[in-house]
Amino acid sequence: MNSRQRRGVILLLLSVLCALGAFAGVLSVINDVQSKVGPEVTAYRLKTSVPPYTSLSADQFETTEMPERWLPDTAVTDLADIRGKIAVTTLKAGSLLQSDMIVDRPALQPGQQEVAIMIDAATGVAGKITAGARVNVYATFEGQREGDPAQSKLIVTHARVIDVGELTALRPDEDDRTRQETEAVPITFALTTVDAQRITYAESFAEEVRLALVAPGADSTVPERDRTYELAKDK
């Protein structure tokens, strides 16, 4: 082997050693990054904003992958955890779902029952009544006999709302051509037996049922004289 060949072999060996060194360096960097980042896990973020006290469902979320070491301890990694839960506050679109954002849906107290009625969206809800709210329920009735004045009655005070359903279009009866199609929302209340009867009667026979949002901590006591209103008796 002449000197030129020896130089070629030496350069080839040096090239191989440099390549191995570079490869080892790349592996070292990759291993260092993996050790710092760690394995990825599945979490969930909101597709759209969710109002407070709204019941949660799987279709409100999308999956996202992120390193486990960067995931907050409170992050929800199993959508089964949202079953029976409602939002504590407004959940903004794109936010990572965390356990401190949700609470259990309000439960019934002993002696209570769930009662759902349809409330006109324009006059009864207007998007401001949510699960957990307290409301007074007013109903307007025609006079019992011809010539009797119409009355507005406060039929249930401080009723607890436990769920607000989806907006639904209501079509008038085929034999009632004077009424237009309206939109209503199913509202579920936690009520005693007597209040459940009152609110069901109002839904069936009242000309109109309205909900009045009660401020938190407000006194729910309403004197009997103030529970019925007639225009002619207004002073």
SSE layout:
Layout: H1 3-37, E1 40-46, E2 61-67, E3 85-87, E4 102-104, E5 113-120, H2 121-125, E6 134-141, E7 151-164, E8 168-170, E9 182-191, H3 193-205, E10 208-213, E11 228-229
Antiparallel strand pairs: 1-2, 3-4, 5-9, 6-7, 6-10, 7-9, 7-11, 8-9
Structure summary:
With 235 residues, the protein is of the alpha+beta class.
Radius of gyration: 33 Å
Task: Report helical residue fraction.
Answer: 10-25%
| Number of domain units | 2
Number of helices: 3
Q: What structural category characterises the helix and strand content?
A: alpha+beta
Counted beta strands: 11
Span of the ends, CA to CA = 123 Å
Can you walk through the features of this model?
With 235 residues, the chain is of the alpha+beta class. It has two domains: 40-104, Type Iii Antifreeze Protein Isoform Hplc 12; 113-233, no CATH class. The protein has helices spanning 3-37, 121-125, 193-205, and strands at residues 40-46, 61-67, 85-87, 102-104, 113-120, 134-141, 151-164, 168-170, 182-191, 208-213, 228-229. The strands form three sheets. Strands 5, 6, 7, 8, 9, 10 and 11 form a seven-stranded antiparallel β-sheet that branches. Strands 1-2 form a two-stranded antiparallel sheet. It has a two-stranded antiparallel ribbon with strand order 3-4. The chain is rod-shaped and about 130 Å long. The relative contact order is 0.13. The model has no long low-confidence stretch (mean pLDDT 78).
